[in-house]
Amino acid sequence: MRLILFGAPGVGKGTQAKILASRLNIPHISTGDILRQAVHDKTPLGIKAQKILSSGELVPDDIMIGIIRDTLQGKECRNGFILDGFPRTLAQAKAFEELLNELKIGNVYFVNLSADNEELVKRLTNRRTCRSCNSIFTLDEILGLQNCPRCGAENSFYQRNDDQEEVIRHRLKVYKDNTKPVLEFYEKLDKVISIKGTGKIEEITAGILRALESKAGNKITISAS
Ligand code: AMP
Q: Is the dihedral of CA 140, 32, 157, 14 positive or negative?
């Protein structure tokens, strides 16, 4: 199974991608996580990307396309992948389709998650991430906790510095300006599965899996949650 999870910052792509990766037994490729790791490790990519990430702007297309090209050619993506955060511009979408042709990879499903802007701002200002396992939590879920409930790491919660309200609003504008052409591009290819990103996490997962099953027929294997 090959899947693109598309949608605005905060809509739940990361949360759903982690669950789906485990249910479908395929890797979760988050371009945001790759970039944040590079910033953390101070690699040449990280040094270039740091300012862009904290301002909420987009990293140049050629860099992102290069990252995805390298990643898709890796062994871990042989049996499928879930892309979270890519493609984000029309140029990325077009380059991605060319790459799929070149690598002879067929059938990538495109899931568009949606929620309204004020809900997204609320979610993102309340979002905390575990530095050790990258799990995402709301402030309520970790209230009073010292250790990450997923991996047990101590004092590992942090707020992404692009999750400050001013930067969030800018990221949502950047998303809006770039998203329409990407959606239209995949609509023309008749690939879009639209799912509401509000409600219970497990219901959203179930909705995505149902839609994928009906599109892909019996070609997917889903593990129990
Ligand atoms: P995310 O974790 O997906 O919200 O991404 C965090 C930040 O990483 C974004 O605000 C961008 O600065 C950068 N980024 C992630 N994916 C891409 C992409 N496909 N194209 C350009 N910039 C990206």
A: positive
